[in-house]
Amino acid sequence: xxxxxxxxxxxxxxxxxxxxxxxxxxxxxxxxxxxxxxxxxxxxxxxxxxxxxxxxxxxxxxxxxxxxxxxxxxxxxxxxxxxxxxxxxxxxxxxxxxxxxxxxxxxxxxxxxxxxxxxxxxxxxxxxxxxxxxxxxxxxxxxxxxxxxxxxxxxxxxxxxxxxxxxxxxxxxxxxxxxxxxxxxxxxxxxxxxxxxxxxxxxxxxxxxxxxxxxxxxxxxxxxxxxxxxxxxxxxxxxxxxxxxxxxxxxxxxxxxxxxxxxxxxxxxxxxxxxxxxxxxxxxxxxxxxxxxxxxxxxxxxxxxxxxxxxxxxxxxxxxxxxxxxxxxxxxxxxxxxxxxxxxxxxxxxxxxxxxxxxxxxxxxxxxxxxxxxxxxxxxxxxxxxxxxxxxxxxxxxxxxxxxxxxxxxxxxxxxxxxxxxxxxxxxxxxxxxxxxxxxxxxxxxxxxxxxxxxxxxxxxxxxxxxxxxxxxxxxxxxxxxxxxxxxxxxxxxxxxxxxxxxxxxxxxxxxxxxxxxxxxxxxxxxxxxxxxxxxxxxxxxxxxxxxxxxxxxxxxxxxxxxxxxxxxxxx
Length: 572
Description:
By secondary structure, this protein is of the alpha/beta class. About 40% of the residues lie in helices and about 20% in strands.
């Protein structure tokens, strides 16, 4: 069907008032109409995410119902016990999130599939926990994570609480594509669902169970008690779901001097104080830094709107705050977790940390010092979840920590996705660890550099918007494969990996890669630098990742600048 035919179908459909008004506003804007009506939203292993509005390539109640119809038809093929286990549903503070959540429940109900829907917004990790706690077959999270206000998204979780595996997602996508009329999907109303006992509201019952598990994250509660009266933390939920639980989470861990950023504790879908509610950006910490300066806070923490990612800033000797990278946060936590277990005498011999292939080798080097193995996986926390599942099933390996450089961390596996609530508690405990030593976390990071080398990483994103952008991204990746890098800024490439072809090449010898297929290229340079090129799975971007080791920060930045300058020309 052409974009003109799709557009005409939408013009004739019975739309919600907001969609109808937006559609009228698009009249005559052919570029916008082509973007909205040419191709349907892509649905991958991370679900779907996009700008809210009318069209088959946008987040709206009809595309949400279509995606859920695909899930429902997939569940119709399961055995009765699996189908009857139902689906847990949560949502964040964005426009239409609650509406989308109950619309999804309505589609499931029409297939006699029960939904367990939170009575108000809750964090993504709590949804992952709820799937495991309630033993549902699947979970749905309505969120666009850290994207700007105009976005929303839809993520599906599997029975283990991790994002649905690729094989099952492929089958769900097949059913989604078979929905020929997006406006002719059976949807039950909420009163109908309640009368048929196909919708159960959940909330405090799951909160209490989740908080009880969060209480087990701290390793040394006595340490926190010793410094609790002096340890000061400033927290911001960035207008999102972290607000719901943060106070109980920190106090359960024994932390008493917690200050919230009041302006950012308002559940605001406009994200009024921070147009980009991403805790990796310095601007999200402006208000927290002001409170931190007033209170001489040891640590500033921000979680993104669905509370799965965490960013942090630490006080420097001059009183200013330094924003940490995701890799630095991971290094500090890995060092503390392993050292605390060593001191407690319960550091397992078969302990493992798990990280993505585009994350720093810094935590891996720290782990090796403690005799702990590091497992590398593809980008996507579901792959970390798969490693946890494998350890539990085989009895080989003991999960200690999982992370991605993009500010995602998991300490305890009662959740199978990144969990900023767990990470908040653990990072506060790390701050307590250094405070007891008479050090700041900034001092602690410098001591790790002195011991293990000055690791620095950088991620650079290049935007490719629209239909033309999608084609350009394919061309860029094809060009990298057609003309492999042999050197970068005068430094020789000694090995490279193509995760799409699943091969590792070194000294002319080709060997297979054990990881699944993915559109990622990774290069290893003679000076221990690594570089990766990867299209984003959720946004129209190609990302360049750099990891270097140097004698100090200045030398590290010089290396990063040199490599970035040379490679950036290939993405413009």
